[in-house]
Write a structure and sequence with these properties.
The chain is mostly helical. It is built from 5 helices and no strands.
Length: about 120
């Protein structure tokens, strides 16, 4: 029972973060945000693809049947962003992303909170 509560809390946090990051691509980006993306080598098209994938992965996470694939996509996106930041020499950004990579992995371990065995 406690794992379901923890899983539910982590799921809600993941959904909130994923939706906010996914919707950010449809807003006018700030100059600082664009500078950061350009320093990582991320073009406007890639930024939109990341946002759509982020939003789509959250939708998959919500459903028990697609929970695993949604979390896998989310973790891969974050690892890819970390790799780009390491390549660009932005170690701080890579370190900040570590907890966000651990969240989908923790969710996979805990399982969907609404899935009944």
């Amino acid at each position: 029972m406690t794992t379901r509560i923890i899983s539910g809390i982590v799921l809600l946090i993941t959904v909130y973060i994923g939706i906010s990051h996914g919707l950010r691509v449809f807003q006018k980006p700030s100059e600082q945000y664009l500078d950061m993306m350009n320093s990582l080598g991320i073009t406007d098209t890639m930024r939109i693809v990341f946002g759509v994938l982020s939003f789509g992965s959250v939708l998959l996470i919500l459903l028990p049947r697609t929970f695993f694939i949604g979390n896998t996509i989310r973790a891969l996106l974050l690892v890819f962003l970390m790799a780009l930041s390491l390549k660009a020499g932005n170690y701080k950004f890579a370190l900040v992303e570590i907890p966000f990579v651990l969240m989908p992995l923790l969710l996979i371990y805990l399982g969907h909170p609404l899935k009944f065995n």
